[in-house]
Amino acid sequence: METPDLKAAEADPKTSSPSDSKRNGGRPKKPKKERRDHVVPVRMNDAEYRLVEEKAEASGLSKSAYMRRAATGRPISPKADAMLRRELRRIGVDLNQLAASLEREPAHVGGPDAAAVRATTEELRRVLNELRDES
């Protein structure tokens, strides 16, 4: 015996079912050039597979993402480097905000001045650029 709610849902044309060809919800499809439609099976021995697993884990990437980067020559940097760069950027943002604040309201005698903070910020940018160029 069917319940009245089920009958009402079946009778309502606005209600969609999984078999409907039109779906309004969900994630929009990626453009054709961004889709990854091809699967490349790769055979590896145990040592090769462990090496790919270790390197992917160290970089913070999935095995697929690691292998795509390796195949296309894109940089693969250790997870620690990425975390270090994020932290250095955060510090740089803080220094920029401090310098801007000091330019609006000069510091008390003996406190940091805007020029010193700007110089430190520029040094931090130089280090970030070097890190980016190395990876």
> What is the count of helical runs?
5
In this structure, how is the largest beta sheet organized?
none
The helix fraction, in percent, is 55-70%
The fraction of residues assigned to DSSP E strands is under 5%
Radius of gyration: 27 Å
Low-confidence stretches: none
Record field, number of beta strands: 0
Form type: elongated
| Coarse structural class | mainly alpha
What is the CA-CA span between the terminal residues? 66 Å
Overall mean pLDDT stands at: 77
Tell me the series of helices and strands, N- to C-terminal: HHHHH
Provide a concise account of the structure shown.
The protein has helices at about 5-10, 45-60, 65-70, 80-105, 115-135. About 60% of the residues lie in helices and about 0% in strands.
Descriptive report:
By secondary structure, this protein is mainly α. The protein has 5 helices and no strands. 3% of the residues are buried.
How are the secondary structure elements laid out?
Layout: H1 4-11, H2 46-59, H3 63-72, H4 79-104, H5 114-134
Helix pairs in contact: 2-3, 4-5
Keywords:
mainly alpha; 59% helix
